[in-house]
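ZP: hey, is the (2S)-2-hydroxybutanedioic acid complex queued? I don't see it on the tracker
AM: it wasn't, my bad. submitting now with these inputs:
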Amino acid sequence: MLKSKVFLVSLVVAVALVASASIAMSAPILIKFSHVVAENTPKGQMANKFKQLIDERLAGKVAVEVFPNSQLFGDDKVLEAMALGDVQLAAPALSKFEKYTPSLQIFDLPFLFDDMAAVEKFQQGPVGQEMLMSMKKKGYIGLGYLHNGMKQISANSPLRVPADAKNKKFRIMTSDVLAAQYEAVGAMPLKKPFSEVFTLLQTKAIDGQENTWSNIYSKKFYEVQPYITETDHGVLDYLVVTSTEFWMGLPDDIRPQVKKALEDAIAFGNDVSAKKAEADRQKIIDSNRSEIIKLTKAERKLWIDAMKPVWSKFAGKIGQEKIDAAVASNN
Ligand code: LMR
């Protein structure tokens, strides 16, 4: 009797030990989030918020590691790394998906969107939502759009009219649309990784670049570029992207929770982007390092007239109906 009791107790203890060991052994699902910007930017803040929300809501089940400042991968490598399972989440600028889908190139068309409200309307509309899935067959899923803001053009000489850009070298993201945009004003575009921009500007290997206020501020481009023309000629937004294999491999009870945390983090990041565009612009003005050139209506029209023919060059690839939908979002 006593013997069987002892046996029963030790059996219970053994089962409990095995169970706790297996819980300890099932490590949380790791999500590595790699990006190229500083932490104090809309994307940097969004990524950190996502980590915080996952820690709060899915502790022990999912863990997030964030790698800012191109520490893990530059945008030229991150999608390949994702396909290999070396990184699970990234948010490259929409301009950097050219190799994978022509449709996202729409966001690079110069002077397409009047403002960020129009961008938001288009992204949340049927065409924008459909485009999230445009790379599914290639193994990538867009989980949402994240804003940074409208782009400005900085240079080492004042740019008021398109002729001022002639023969100057501008760093661009890896986008043929952006290349065509600079060629349209007789400038020389150079596709270079974000991590190299500051040094290229500082050493005067290039004359200028285009970016958002928060990137110009956080990466100190304004310290090595005496002029910034406030063009608002294009948008720099992101696609929060994952691999189809990783996403579909998540347990069914976990995936919706990760998606919700991402949506909440994106909403937070979008809020940051709106505030930063204004605040970082002001910090640049206050620094007195760079003069901000405001264009008159007539000057801005010259840039529009020079750059807008780029639309028709890419309409076949992107789809005229998509361009029409984007234009309609301005109303
Ligand atoms: C750039 O390369 O200029 C941007 O895409 C950087 C970023 O991610 O905002």
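AM: back. The chain has a mean pLDDT of 94.
ZP: great, adding it to the tracker
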